Amino acid sequence: MRLGALLFCGALVAFGFAYQDARNLLAKDSGPVQADAIIVLGGGWNERAERAAELYREHAAPLVIVSGRGDCETNRTVLIQGGVPPDAIELECNSSSTRENALFTLPILKRKGAHNVIIVTTWYHSRRALACFRHYAPEINFYSRPSFYAADRAEWNRKSVAPYIRREFIKLPGYWVVYGVKPW
Predict the structure, then answer these.
(1) How far does Cα 73 stand from its chain's mean position?
(2) What total of structural domains would you count in the chain?
(3) In the sheet where 116-120 sits, what is the strand order?
(4) pLDDT tens for residues 52-81?
(5) Is the separation of the CB atoms in 144 and 129 below 8 Å?
(6) What is the distance between the alpha carbons of residues 52 and 155, in angstroms, rounded to a whole number?
(7) The domain spanning residue 118 has which CATH number?
(8) Could you tell me if residue 75 is inside a domain?
């Protein structure tokens, strides 16, 4: 009983330290890179599609794939408003998880002959997203260029990202245990 309580307290302390350093632990940014395609993952507050449009305008890749159920068309609209031509956008509107984002976009990537791919998501989701895509398609070079929306600690509660950050600390090891997706 005491050992269990001690382990629980230790886990809480570890979580507290990890949460304080969330940006360093969760964010993964590969830096500037040229690729064959950009994949923008669903979710967030339009910042992901805005970031993907920014990368497109910088000529990081000639193709943008929108992946995710629920906001697929919204992200497409944001991309077009951000300067991405409609014919440079492919849609994958069936995935409802990061794992499905990877699995459902792979046929598109293979059909397009993509070898180097940039993943765009929010900073706190970028480590797991990158690990997931690399796990399911090790033959493709994946890079992460996240949006840093609400990355400053002072913005977490004001912009409602704190719950997502906390959940990411559960999902990251969860994907490792359930799917074998290593977080490093």
Answers:
(1) 18
(2) 1
(3) 89-92, 64-67, 37-41, 116-120, 141-144
(4) 999 999 999 999 999 999 999 999 999 999
(5) yes
(6) 22
(7) 3.40.50.620
(8) yes
